[in-house]
UniProtKB/TrEMBL annotation:
Compositional bias of kind Basic and acidic residues: 16-25
Gene3D superfamilies, sorted: PNP-oxidase-like
Signal sequence region: none
PANTHER family on file: CREG1 PROTEIN, PENTATRICOPEPTIDE REPEAT (PPR) SUPERFAMILY PROTEIN
Segments of this protein annotated with the region Disordered: 1-35
Species this chain originates from: Streptomyces smyrnaeus
Name of the protein described by the UniProt record: DUF2470 domain-containing protein
Length: 267
């Protein structure tokens, strides 16, 4: 059961999203949350009972984040932020916190909100000898982000529960599953790849969906298993179509071959 601590999902934008009806191979819920947690898409960190003043620019928004091999979420925040101040003396399970991640399509389509994930747990500062290891992990994940020091603090979110509501559906994720999951290997390149497909391969994408009779067809999401395209005509509702790769891909080079095969089959 989904425990208290994470606000239940459900917004007008989410309810309007087309849901998959095809029997497609797909990432697990844990993999989807892990992918979003390690991505650069928008995230908001809140501490129940001590919410930041969202009128302040950047309030509650980590400057960098990543996930440790053990499944803890590392966050880099300004030293004078509410999160840094409130958590400065926290120990173990003293301080509950929730990170909400919002995934918006990097291309122009109806209903651009692709999904949300919530990761809840306990927030503590990164202390002692862990600091050097965590600083390296954050630097690898976000090489252009500020570094920890007098003006920045590293925080650790020990995951107690997670939930995802996205193009694949809604599902709770257990902490052990989150820790064991791996992010999608294409995630770091997905935005650039989708924008390239939309700009340079519009006719091939439309060819994949020729049987749908859509006036518009735009690549919406990409993972190691396949491509999702959103299409629509006139004022009618938009719909999604999913195109599986013959084999899961793990690199951009493998993706190029898989896309060539898809486009050749689409004629």
């Amino acid at each position: 059961m989904f425990r208290p601590g994470i606000s239940p999902p459900g917004t007008d934008a989410e309810e309007e999203q087309p849901r998959p009806v095809e029997d497609a191979r797909q990432p697990t819920a844990a993999e989807r949350v892990r992918t979003l947690a390690q991505s650069s898409v928008s995230a908001l960190l809140t501490i129940p009972g001590a919410e930041p003043d969202l009128r302040e620019p950047g309030a509650g928004v980590p400057e960098a984040r990543t996930v440790t091999p053990d499944g803890d979420v590392l966050l880099l925040v300004p030293a004078d932020s509410l999160e840094a101040r409130v958590s400065s003396y926290a120990q173990d399970d003293d301080l509950a916190a929730v990170m909400e991640i919002t995934d918006v399509a990097p291309v122009s389509v109806p209903h651009r909100l692709r999904g949300r994930a919530w990761v809840a747990g306990w927030l503590t500062p990164v202390r002692g000898e862990d600091r050097a290891v965590c600083a390296r992990l954050l630097a690898e994940a976000a090489p252009y982000a500020p570094v920890a020091g007098t003006s920045r603090r590293m925080l650790r979110l020990e995951v107690g529960e997670a939930y995802v509501d996205d193009l694949w559906g809604e599902e709770a994720v257990e902490p052990d599953d989150f820790a064991a999951a791996a992010p999608d290997p294409l995630a770091a390149h997905e935005a650039e790849l989708l924008q390239h497909l939309a700009a340079a391969h519009q006719e091939q994408v439309r060819g994949l969906c020729a049987c749908q009779g859509w006036e518009q067809a735009v690549p919406l999401a990409l993972d190691r298993f396949g491509l999702r395209v959103r299409g629509w005509s006139g004022t009618g509702p938009c719909m999604d179509a999913r195109f599986d790769f013959t084999e899961p891909v793990g690199t951009v080079a493998e993706l190029r071959h898989a896309m060539h095969t898809l486009f050749a089959a689409g004629g």
